[in-house]
Specification:
Helices cover about 50% and strands about 15% of the residues. The protein is of the alpha/beta class. The chain binds NADP nicotinamide-adenine-dinucleotide phosphate (NAP).
Amino acid sequence: MKLNILVTGCSTGIGKHCALRLKEEGHHVIATARLLEDVEKLRAEGFTAFQLDLDSSESIQTAVQQTLEYTQGRVDALFNNGAYGQPGAVEDLTRNALRDQFETNLFGTIELTNRIIPVMRRQGYGRIVMNSSVLGFVALKYRGAYNASKFALEGITDTYRLELKGSGVEISLIEPGPIESDFRKNALAKFKANINTEQSAHRSTYEGVLARLEDGDPKSGAFTLPPEAVYQALKKALESSRPRARYYVTTPTYLFGVLKRLLPTRWLDAILSRSSG
Ligand SMILES: NC(=O)c1ccc[n+]([C@@H]2O[C@H](COP(=O)([O-])OP(=O)(O)OC[C@H]3O[C@@H](n4cnc5c(N)ncnc54)[C@H](OP(=O)(O)O)[C@@H]3O)[C@@H](O)[C@H]2O)c1
């Protein structure tokens, strides 16, 4: 079945790859991006593309309107992919940096989803897929803002699932570990913009973190997979007659999924502490 699929965050990484693969499969992809220049690039590549900045209610509203005009009112699937990571110790996060993280990763995503759900309820059919993270269910040092936003996304998605029961609208989470993309480059920019390293109790650790982020090689992690791994999970969430609540992607997700269930918190903390980098 050919679906009308709205995807956020298609400028780079997972969103771009999944939009391409969905288009190859013959689906009608509505690829969205935060910046107009990326929308233009997507159009030049043959996509139906609209600007959608998750930080702006107006932008979300306009993009939904444009999508509904293009699809004549039908949206079969929504892939909530757009997000970023704000690194830094929790005690070094300003209220604004934390708020910005939630504006994009949670509030914008939920506002968009809430605009699409009535369309799907009317159809009696829809698939919503949230791109969460392994950091949506285990915490790492210096990822507190991102952890919090993805834990919140997981919680609210669990609530959606209960509330959507019987509507024909299915909602799933994808929980990737490390994936090749521009994520680390973008996180580094957010770190530099928002964290005052000079004044921090974590100053010496930051020097190590900066060196790792500035290494810039997206394939450097031992367990890092290409974005195709996320696409394969997305495909299952879209095509399965009974989509799962959660799709694990990468070895660290499977590993921490098991460890979280088995280990006492102190033991899990010891392992996570060593994994934090
Ligand atoms: N890469 C990983 O290791 C990994 C692991 C687990 C989960 N994830 C999740 O995968 C998703 C995609 O990330 P990625 O790895 O592909 O990183 P990426 O290459 O940095 O892509 C992130 C996308 O989100 C977009 N975005 C950021 N802020 C936005 C906003 N305000 N409005 C609309 N779009 C916005 C970015 O647009 P701009 O280019 O305009 O900033 C970009 O298109 C995210 O939800 C991320 O949390 C990634």
